[in-house]
Amino acid sequence: xxxxxxxxxxxxxxxxxxxxxxxxxxxxxxxxxxxxxxxxxxxxxxxxxxxxxxxxxxxxxxxxxxxxxxxxxxxxxxxxxxxxxxxxxxxxxxxxxxxxxxxxxxxxxxxxxxxxxxxxxxxxxxxxxxxxxxxxxxxxxxxxxxxxxxxxxxxxxxxxxxxxxxxxxxxxxxxxxxxxxxxxxxxxxxxxxxxxxxxxxxxxxxxxxxxxxxxxxxxxxxxxxxxxxxxxxxxxxxxxxxxxxxxxxxxxxxxxxxxxxxxxxxxxxxxxxxxxxxxxxxxxxxxxxxxxxxxxxxxxxxxxxxxxxxxxxxxxxxxxxxxxxxxxxxxxxxxxxxxxxxxxxxxxxxxxxxxxxxxxxxxxxxxxxxxxxxxxxxxxxxxxxxxxxxxxxxxxxxxxxxxxxxxxxxxxxxxxxxxxxxxxxxxxxxxxxxxxxxxxxxxxxxxxxxxxxxxxxxxxxxxxxxxxxxxxxxxxxxxxxxxxxxxxxxxxxxxxxxxxxxxxxxxxxxxxxxxxxxxxxxxxxxxxxxxxxxxxxxxxxxxxxxxxxxxxxxxxxxxxxxxxxxxxxxxxxxxxxxxxxxxxxxxxxxxxxxxxxxxxxxxxxxxxxxxxxxxxxxxxxxxxxxxxxxxxxxxxxxxxxxxxxxxxxxxxxxxxxxxxxxxxxxxxxxxxxxxxxxxxxxxxxxxxxxxxxxxxxxxxxxxxxxxxxxxxxxxxxxxxxxxxxxxxxxxxxxxxxxxxxxxxxxxxxxxxxxxxxxxxxxxxxxxxxxxxxxxxxxxxxxxxxxxxxxxxxxxxxxxxxxxxxxxxxxxxxxxxxxxxxxxxxxxxxxxxxxxxxxxxxxxxxxxxxxxxxxxxxxxxxxxxxxxxxxxxxxxxxxxxxxxxxxxxxxxxxxxxxxxxxxxxxxxxxxxxxxxxxxxxxxxxxxxxxxxxxxxxxxxxxxxxxxxxxxxxxxxxxxxxxxxxxxxxxxxxxxxxxxxxxxxxxxxxxxxxxxxxxxxxxxxxxxxxxxxxxxxxxxxxxxxxxxxxxxxxxxxxxxxxxxxxxxxxxxxxxxxxxxxxxxxxxxxxxxxxxxxxxxxxxxxxxxxxxxxxxxxxxxxxxxxxxxxxxxxxxx
Length: 1114
Hints:
The chain is of the alpha/beta class. Helix content is 48%, strand content 14%. The chain is built from 41 helices and 32 strands. Strands 9, 10, 11, 14, 15, 16, 17 and 18 form an 8-stranded mixed beta sheet that branches. Strands 3-2-6-7-1-8 form a 6-stranded parallel beta sheet, with helices on both faces.
């Protein structure tokens, strides 16, 4: 017998659900079995609402979704087929794709890409829901070649998936399809009254279910959001529901069902005129403006999302103070993923209880990260990044501090592979590594369980283990680490506080879900062999597909959810956040794997294709309408001017509401500086107004008065000081004072001239480097600085050997130099930077390039020395340190402090005079281009060469009188610009490697420096010989008095710098000279907060020429 069909038609708030509840209550009283079918996400809330309506429990009524009903019907029929979750289906689909990769046409390449299985699954699900078979996909005619190939590939995968599942598994869609054939014999449905209050979920599959219900149930009642008279100004809004209504009407007519239609024209929910007006006119055209004030509709603007959430929290508190309960309030946001962390912080700080209707990805949970990272460690041979991910889960038993120390140790020494997994020491020369035994113990505590996992996984031979045995290995690894016990302890701790109870439930749910995934792998793959790489990929893809949610833990709390997915009961106050353009309504892009044009072609070919993006956008408007219509008393819409770093504008929705209600209350940044109901809220308004003023130059009305109010209030003096320091920062700390400086640096300090140069570049950096002793995390990497160290070490070994042998530089040929270099370069490369050059093929190939560069540089360097009479006296001359033959150079401050200059001089050359004594020159190798600049010397930025000269002179002149002949930088030139012409390249290299710095203006010194018959020297930059005048000239020439002045000046600047340091100067005062600044390579930018856009200025270095420096008279 055909069922009686009841249609309940009406706009939002007209009482459709209430009519269903009333009928269900009558059935309960009469003892008539009833089913109320709602969407999956709404079953809990609907059951609670219906139970409240009935005033107690339900004996004859069940609240179900189509999927839950299908499970019950199949259970009643004795179905024993294993249920396949979405994640299990994805794993099976991935397997099908792997097996079919050679049979695919269009998707042969992308079929193996991560994520393609999920896209393919989405298409197959739509096919199931719209009753499209693989044969229909494959045989569709009249389609373009590319679309035909797409459908052919999908049909192949779809068919093979069905073959895999046949008789073994059943998924959610198959459950529903299988239910249709069982409904006529189901005692749950036969003779029962069915109510379907979910018009937005009707598709081809659900329509077939309804068709079956029409021949089984006693009554079928359906609700539709349709204007009852069928003619309204917003008729377009209701077209999705109208289409469903017409389809069901056709089914009822075909089944011969008696039909009753109830048209609800009133608005039971909205008793106040403005909200009723909004419900009727929001999407209407033409529309009518509301004639009077509408104080229960508020349009609010905020500077950014953080401020928007804070102001929403304030609005909720005001509502609660006025008599509302938290459960009477709901928040619908445009982008839950973006708003969730902000709302959590803001609501928690204000003590607002809330339930976030959101799902969390299982793959982001520490247990999931532990499993996948441990598997990758085994599969990929203990890569450091995988090992560190295991560490960071905090499930290994290591305390957090020990884990962080171990992470730093791994990164510093580049531990990989066996150096991470082996019980042997991870670093060979570890005597100088503090706490090495502690680090090794921590490393092994993490590595040993992973090694045990690896041994279990490979016990039967690589690639031969079955899937279920690999799953057992994972279980044993979790057992080794006692993960379940640790999780239980964490959940017990979280349950102690009501505010964290939901996190305890979420953690437990995630753990159960991970166990379910492992069980699904066992069910699907069973005893079939699977390689470790494939197994790891299956686990990762399965975890990525899982999401978990929890049910509310208390009744009196604010419901927060995404406006596109929230199931919202009626609420007295609804806050809609994020009403920005492109956010509400959220327009769906036409970028699916099968786009709208192709869907249209499929329909023409006779396939019942699914919704296009255009129809989904229409449904989005209807959904927004439904959500907004849930408010019974007040509506609050807010938008922000910035989303992240981008500016944003309000949605057209805000514009429409503003047009409908010209007198609606407008609040926020655009309208008033302070709307706070409390001092704390008003102070936030002040901070937001100041932020806007600084960023945009726009002053919010009332901001000066608000600032004056808080500035005059002693209770807020500390807060105002903090606010002023935040927006008008004095980023430099006050001088530390002599006592603090003495405790930080000590009365006797030592270091290279670079330490003094750093202070003169920026005193604050000096404080961080040498006072607080901050250090960047050491990483195993090859930087440009490391390349420079390698060049220095190679040239030192070459020069040191030549000096020791007292070699004749003029007799050295390029072949002899190359032979010498090759005698030590292999061992130097192997030891350099912990052997990093041997880590990869790319770095090993780089060694060949470095060798060629070193040979060219060394040949040019030896030729440079051979062209003159100066000869190397020492290479890498260390002074001032214990065991050094050359003592430190002492600088004395006025406070009694002493700074002992120590260092290593790259090379010292000397020229002995027949009568004793002679000349010396200081040479510093640079892999970057550096010139001797008197401006930098005058500012104390380049003190190294003259201070080195002072230290070396003290040592050389102890026995004989030696005078400084030159202070030079030597640029170890870059060979990348060479042309390949050997002769031209050799000359170009010599010119680029010329000594750069002051040279003593003495003919004997000049000829000893460059003994060639030159017009322009190829040894020293800036020296020329004029045959007409018969004399030498050049900008780099200085007299003996000027050379002495430069050295003494550097000592005076060093002593003055020491005085400033010991006074405790630590201001953030970076200098800038030309295009180079002290901030350019500074690691502390995030600490000092120096920002030129905030008004901070560099300390400009005055340009000083040699004539000005030496006060030369014309």
